[in-house]
## 1
Amino acid sequence: MRREYPDSPVASVGAVIFCGEDVLLVRRRNEPSKDLWGLPGGVVKLGERVEDAIVREVEEETNILVKPLRLLAVLDNIRRDDDGQIRFHYILTEFRCAVVEGELRASTNASDARWIAVTDLDLLKMSRMARGLIMRVAEEEGILR
């Protein structure tokens, strides 16, 4: 499966995970969001359920085992090159997850992983889509007062 200039959209997952007023974020090591902070997650493997993919991806990137609580959103992330060709197209299935266990440590395609205060998100280089989703969920759950 080609991720860059794909023949069809790539199914992927992301997790919104809070600890108090902090959210778990990773700094991406690879394109299309290299060096940006974002939600832990990644590509769904063939034959894998999205609920299993989010657990696997979060653990691979952060060493944290999670449990999916609810589906938050299904979003498109489409990026075109300078000629207008579709360079990346991900369909993102976003879950609200809870920590089960683990000690935070970045690995695989995350160059860093941290708990970051929701109030500090504007200080980070991250996508508006990820920031907006985090803020929406934080407001819905009363994390922001």
## 2
Amino acid sequence: MRILVQRVSEARVSVAGEVIGEIGAGLLILVCAMQADDKANAEKLAEKVAKLRIFRDADDKMNLSLKDTEGAALVISQFTLAADTTRGNRPGFSAAAAPEKGERLYEHFSDHLRKQGVFVANGRFGADMDVQLVNQGPVTVWIEG
């Protein structure tokens, strides 16, 4: 799986003008399942994200995790993270998992993140979404696994 994690002070996702997911302080997580991924990949990344120490402590060091801060997560499916731009100017997405598999792994990632004690809001898989965020820091981290 490939995920892009952004530390946010707030984030929301809308479909057709209706807000379907919203959080305050925490993480916006863009998730892409790849062809070779399985549930173990989703679980490993969910556990990593819950423990990723990118929040500031009392000494202003990035030393706290989402679990430590009791922050929330807004999880959005993002197949374009599979983009291959090595040939020409039009990205290819053939490395992404098929939609049915991608949706199952996206949901499994979200469910496993909840099992880590994190409040999780979601986008709508496969929908045309508008995502708004205030990236805090800014802090943005790319993770594969």
## 3
Amino acid sequence: MEEFCTCGARLVPDARFCHKCGRPVRESEEPLPPVAAEAPPESPPPPPIVEIGFQNRAAVRIALFAGALALALSSIPISPWLPVVTLLGGGALAVYLYNRRTEQSLPARSGLKLGWMTGLFAFLISMVLMTIAVALLSARQDALERALRDQSGLPPDMAARVLEIIRNPVELTLSLLFGFLTFSVTAALGGALGARVFRKH
């Protein structure tokens, strides 16, 4: 082993490097450990999607707003298909607003649930308004008939049919069940469609 380094410094016995200039004076007997490659920084996991249901306050508020808006637009006498279109749009609108509110993309199943809630709220609001109107006009049958014939925009034969349904408890129950299924299923389909259309890529 060398006693002096090329820089003139006296080497320490069994030294691997010169303590003055740092020049290696003998080969290392042990291999240097490999330098570990730095792992790329991991992106934070996306926040978990909160289950859509009546315990989800954001979902309830959005479904109530979308259902009320869809019901209001469906009352415009433009086309007999307008209620179906507005319910579909109401379900899709609820999904869009929920995505914007929570910055998450709902899967189709959650969109279906949110749309169903939208249709349910629209149906409940329509039942409350209809019950109030019938209760106010039931004392005067002529006023009820005149309101259905003149102010509802229904044809005379359809207005008479509505009066028959109101007076018959069995037909009224079946009509309410059919209306509930129509509202909820149509808006649920709109919610599932909205979940696919407004999904973030």
